[in-house]
Amino acid sequence: MAPEQLVPTWLTRVGVFDLETTGVDVESDRIVTAHVGVLDARGREIAARTWLADPGIPIPEGATAVHGITTEHARAHGRPVAEVVEQITRALRSLFAQGVPVVAYNASYDFSLLAHEARRHGIEPLEQPGPVIDPLVIDKAYDRYRPGKRTLEVVAAHYAVPLDGAHEASADAIAAGRVAQALAREFDLPASAGELPTRQVSWARAQAASLTEYFVKIGRLDPDETLDGTWPVRSVAEAEKSA
């Protein structure tokens, strides 16, 4: 059976989205590179746009070590960040308007940071984007007790999805889309794109509560602290705690 016959109809054409940034705080960190594309039923990219932004602030060495972009390179070759944010937001809004679901791995990070960037630059943010597909949330829900990390690299390898050039926005976005399609072949996902986001909201909330309990137990969080399980756009940065 052909690969496209093994996934729900709504996964035969999907958007993919990823950001590389100056850090992990969705409220204060900035976009450095971004990718928005579209995959067909076989996971082939049939449309794409990649951006390099000058984030307007220095890129920390730790962030450069992850994605390879220095402050000097971004300033010399990047577009003004406000222009990049507007174009990313417009591209995603166009996909949603067409009813195309967009895959983002750990979607609450990318969509939350994009929303804060939009507000920072006077651009109308994507307050309730959708339909969004988050392979991280889905994988945790359907294979809850599998040991090991759930980074994109690890999960892609688990589902036999190639990932060359991890932490490069286009490579991560495409791999996340293919992982979503692999999950659909592995598990009995909802028959409609509209039903899945509703479930992901509940799953993300429950996963955050479970992780909060574990972090309190090992002393990584104080008993009165909680991880924000709001999905896919949260208002408080929790990425560093859950990384």
Short description:
It contains nine helices and six strands, in the order βββααβαβαβααααα. With 243 residues, it is α/β, with parallel strands linked by helices.
What does this structure look like?
The chain contains 9 helices and 6 strands; from the N terminus they run E-E-E-H-H-E-H-E-H-E-H-H-H-H-H. It has a 6-stranded mixed beta sheet, with helices on both faces. Helix 4 links the parallel strand 5 and strand 6. It is globular, with a radius of gyration of 17 Å. The termini are far apart.
| Biggest sheet statistics | 6 strands, mixed
Biggest β-sheet: strands ordered side by side in the sheet: 4-3-2-1-5-6
Please state the structural category.
alpha/beta
Q: First CA to last CA: what distance?
A: 38 Å
Mean pLDDT: 91
Into which percent range does the helicity of residues fall?
A: 40-55%
Rg, please? 17 Å
Low-confidence stretches: 236-243
Order of helices and strands: EEEHHEHEHEHHHHH
Q: How much of the sequence is in beta strands?
A: 5-15%
Features:
single chain, 243 residues, alpha/beta, 9 helices, 6 strands, 44% helix
